[in-house]
Amino acid sequence: MSASGFHEGERAVQERAGATEAAGRLHGMLQPPWLGGGLRAALAARTFAVLTARDRDGELWISPLTGEPGFLAGEGTTLTVAAVPPAGDPLHGLPVPQPAGLLAIDLGLRRRIRVNGRLTGRTDDTLTVEADQAFGNCPAYIQPRLLAPDTAAPLLGEPAPVADRDTLDEHDRDLIARADTFFLGTTHPTRGTDASHKGGAPGFVRIEDGELWWPDYAGNNLFTSLGNLTVDPAAALLFLDFATGRTLHLGGEATVEWLDPAAAPDEGGTGRRVRFRPRRVRGGRLGLREASPAG
Length: 295
Description:
The protein is mainly beta. The protein is built from five helices and 16 strands. Helix content is 14%, strand content 42%. The model has no long low-confidence stretch (mean pLDDT 90).
């Protein structure tokens, strides 16, 4: 979304959900995209973020970024990220410039910040994002956990070359079935990309005939993700095994399904769910693991 208002996909979902007025009340919090004050301090405290962008072949992915506190540095409308997708990650060597959506999240504190804009710079160890919008999200559906550096990761060396698959294997299905958290990347032809967090009870993401679906729970009524998918079905998913540090990247297409209560159960209580068809599958690993349960 830019200063001109919500795009056509967001407006369509807001209207069908009966949330146009509620969304309008939140419009002002998205502008201007100033990364000072409280936002700057919150970003500086984070050690984990996810980035939605396109690879060198134009495919959409969402990837993790990790670092010490301070690796996310906001100044004015510029976010400097002292991390890049590593070798083996789908976004390694991603092209610049391009639209980018970043979500910085503290799972232990259940706090998250979205920064959407343009990726304008990349070095061997930094990314630069010029923000079009920046705002905090509510803690709903964030499953609390404490993350710590994975001390075993450096001992494993550089990841071996990987190739994308087009189907889920047994290990992928097991990870998805156990997941209480994943991250969703979406895009719009003119408004850029977005990274969002999705959470629920373990098993809230279902697998049917090689496709995934999950209920859409009530949120802030902006409908950025669903609005993007209404216009452009390109989607990217990231699942994390917090116990082992394993990552699962999925790329494909997603559609918003509006449910007929007489024909399908409404597990989210909103009359909506999202169905995803994976076309690209790639594994990897995260530099963090769960340290202990967060109270």
